[in-house]
Amino acid sequence: MKIRAFVTGTLLSLAAVAVVRCQPAARANVDPAPSTSGSSTPAPSDASVASAADASAEESPWTRLSADDLRRIVRDNAVAKLHELAPELAVSRITEYAQNPSLAPELSGKAVDEVIHLAQVELSSGNARDAAAWVTVARARARNRNSAFVANVIFAEARRQLAGADNAAQERALHELFVAMPMVRFQAATVTYQLFQRTEQLDARLGTIRRAMVSPETAVAALYTDTVLRTIVGARERYLAAVQAARTGFESRPARAPYAFSTVDLAGDRRAQPVHVAVWDTGTNPELFRAQMFTNAREQANGRDDDNNGLVDDISGIASDPDPRSTGLLFDPGAETITQYGGYLRGVMDLRAGMASTPAAQRVLTLVRAIETPAAQEELDTRLEAIGEWGHGTHVAGILLAGVPQARMSVFRSAWAGEARVYHHRGPTDAELDAEDRNAADIVRYIRAHGVRVVNASLGFSLEYVEDELRHETDRYRTDAEVRARAAIVHGRRKALWTRVFRECPETLFVVAAGNSNQDVVEYDVVSASIRDANNLLVVGAVDRFGEWAVFTNSNPERVRVFDHGVEVDSVIPNGERVPLSGTSMASPNVANLAAKMLSVNPRLTPAQVMTFIHETGAAIAAPFNGRIAHEERAIARARRGR
Question: What is the pTM (predicted TM-score) of this model?
């Protein structure tokens, strides 16, 4: 999935779960060898390419594009990018590479993306053998070992086609693929097949894609939806039968022992000192944490700067929203949205974690399968994103405050941090970027005025996401080059914003989520996780309940060295219910919670010392992965010693 602010990154639009954009969020699959026998199924008809056009589609450039045109766009772009990213890779040697993947060069994350795009082109052309070969190469040579399970949807469909025309043989091929996976990978692999089961869903998704300009990225999305997914929907009975048979087998296996995460409760620690923490998010319900809310006694809610610190009504935090009526610390999407869609939050997050078989996930799948028009798709996406903004920050706050009654919390609500609601299918204007800068400057002033020691920021921004949204502004941008140029400006300003925040708050530790796209934060330049030379920035990745990298977690051996529990993490949402959610957004406050405890037992620690102690006392994650899982007991003991 393309990273947004991690409200949407954590909530996850269901299109991203299904890899409509062929992004890594749903590439959680294993690497058996491809079949070497069988025949290919013919590619879908070009006539289907125009089947989901909107009423205005006759004026759209999409109507002039056949499936062959889309394949050519995707292939030419992939080959050109691979020449830059992996010049040693020879596209003509695919058969040789498939037989001996070690002959292929090691592939960066972006190179893997382009290799998978080539696999998609081959599969949509009816060439299942080369499609499977490209996926095999991507899995074997990916530098990011979480990508050893990449592109299961494409690989599974290639394997099904190579099994021939017999339905039973196809089911066996799929079943063999599924049962070869670890359970957690199998769960993630089944999401697409359960999500898309009707052609009307694909037509609706195509309609939303075709509202953006034609580019290599949108061509990938359209081709994938209209060829790969459409073929899978046509074979859904074989897929669902194979999924059910594999699930039955997994459920018969002995239960696996969960990882023993270390936790410490400071409730009985008389020596622990107060510590001021903050949640920087899209909104938090302060009423649920009233006993632990920081209160600026010198300020009153009267629209004036009573304490003359340059901030108005900074009693327990700061709220920034383009809607002047939305001034609270909690974003309110409206009673109707909360009532109708609030109950789907856990299901969306279960799907995000690759758990398609839970009752909550099945409820969401039923909801999504009913979509038949682009308008309905847009409405659902918008409502689910709003629920994400409503619930996200409160859930994060509950994790941050657990077991540390000495903590006092402030709330920083930045509507722009969620992006999807504020900048829906468009990018921010210069005036809006100026407002983002002012909001960040106010937060810096608040941090310095009130001595905030730890800030959790489960949010982040990628260049790709900005580009995706700008492509919808077809009345403003004529070419993809113009889109990329504007996106670079937006991304550069946000990178500068976060760099200033870290530099101007040297006594504050910022704990940020790495992101949920199975990407390298440096290679994809995820802001703020990729920012270097900040000795008060701790980037956190997610592990699952078994202590292994979550299928979605971002990483980088130098920037993401600390991991924590980020799958099915229990906490509270704004209406007071407790709901387990998943994402690096949940792993990050687990580590921020530990940092708060360390500063409570030893207020003299610097941000650099806290980061060093957490990393050095963490439990090493087994190869081929890297990083350490935070260990509270050892880190707090180290903090007490203060060395």
Answer: 0.90
